[in-house]
Amino acid sequence: MRAYLLTAAACAAVALACGTAVPAVADSGPSVAFSLSDPRITESSGLAASRLHPGVYWTHNDSDDGPYVYAVDSATGKTVARVTMRGIHARDVEAISLGPDGDLYVGDIGDNLGGTWPEVWIYRFPEPKQLGDRTVDVTRYTVRYDAGPRNAEALMVHPKTGRVYIASKNQDGGALYAGPAELSAGGVNTFHRIADVPWVTDGAFSPDGTRLVLRGYLGATGYRWADGAPHKIGSLDVPMQRQGESVTFTTDGRNLMFGSEGKNSDVWRAPLSGDELPDSVAASASASADDHKGAQTSSAASPGASPGTAKDTGTTSTGSRVVGIGVLAVIGAIGVGARKLLRRNRERHRD
After folding, report:
1. pLDDT of residue 224
2. Which one of 97, 152, 164, 276 is at 20 to 30 Å from 138 when CA atoms are compared?
3. Which of 6, 61, 19, 43 lies closest to 341 in space, CA to CA?
4. How far apart are CA 305 and CA 313, in angstroms?
5. Phi and psi of 86, rounded to 5°?
6. Measured in whole angstroms, how far is the alpha carbon of residue 317 from the centre of its chain?
């Protein structure tokens, strides 16, 4: 076992070295938006775009940190606030999401022993109107699954209905679970399985609620959200990262932001196009194109206009898919497995 761990650790080191050297393939594809410069953020595991503070993203560490949530300015990569959740002893915080009421939902939903804890928790508090370090009171919700304990790393709050969803994480494929219409702080909230999903480390709804994205370490899938269920669209552009753990939409719905664990980790921006775009964004783009076409037609028909004066200046781009070298992907997966195995052994000895 020791030899296996040493080999895996060596592979993980190679993956780290290579992963940090992978650039964006093209301007239209994924590119680094900012880096998390706070030395306290070493295992960023969730990401949510602030609605009150433009350009600010909320994140948190995985296990082995305190009950903290960090606000990071994407313009500088610096932390502009650390929120402490009063009275919370965080066990394995894996996800964060913003609800339609402006509250932040923090998912203490990880289970490194593969699904042995009978219940997990969600913490909820209003997004602070002023940025700065503070301690807040939270509402705590107890969560169980209809089919027993599950390991999970993705929690998503629908931006219109406020219903909370959790995606379990399983190497052979997980499931998407829906919570009750309203969470109850006075009892157990049972989440029911509604769909099968792939290996998931995080997920996010688009701002208008018409798209759902679920990501894993090496890929992501886009879904159209309709009638309370996901309908698969297809694979999305994902950057090669050291350990891809988080995803969120930008507030305009036009891009995805992908985060990773690790000190000084990069957050990448990946533009969306075609069916990947939320309905509200696609409708806006269509209206803008119609206006542009109408203006060109008017200009071409005006007195003195010469042939070729009016031309289509719009451009379309699907973005170049970021494809990691196969060997790098395998090495990265081995490194991740070694890390998780080491953590699981620590947890087992601790219990």
Report:
1. 98
2. 152
3. 6
4. 17
5. -65, 135
6. 23
Q: How far is CA 119 from the centre of its chain?
A: 23
* CA pair distance 276, 211, nearest whole angstrom: 8
Burial degree of 203 (CB within 10 A; 0-12, 13-18, 19+): buried
Helix (H, G, I), strand (E, B) or coil at 146: coil
Q: Which of 133, 142, 36 is nearest to 85 (CA)?
A: 133
Residue for token digits 């991740």?
A: 336
**What are the tokens at 331?**
């090495």
The C-alpha atoms of residue 302 and residue 295 are separated, in whole angstroms, by: 11
User: Any idea what DSSP says for residue 114?
Assistant: S
- Residue 286 dihedral angles phi and psi, to the nearest 5°: -65, -45
How confident is the prediction for the chain on average, in pLDDT? 81
Pairing mode of beta strands 103-108, 44-49: unpaired
- Burial class (CB within 10 angstroms; exposed 0-12, middle 13-18, buried 19+) of 140: middle
Spatial separation of the C-alpha atoms in residues 138 and 321, rounded to whole Å: 41
Report pLDDT for 329.
41
At 236, list the tokens: 């999305």
Rounded distance between C-alpha atoms, residue 113 and residue 12, angstroms: 21
Q: What is the pLDDT of residue 199?
A: 92
Q: What is the pLDDT of residues 83-117, one digit of tens each?
A: 999 999 999 999 999 999 999 999 999 987 777 88
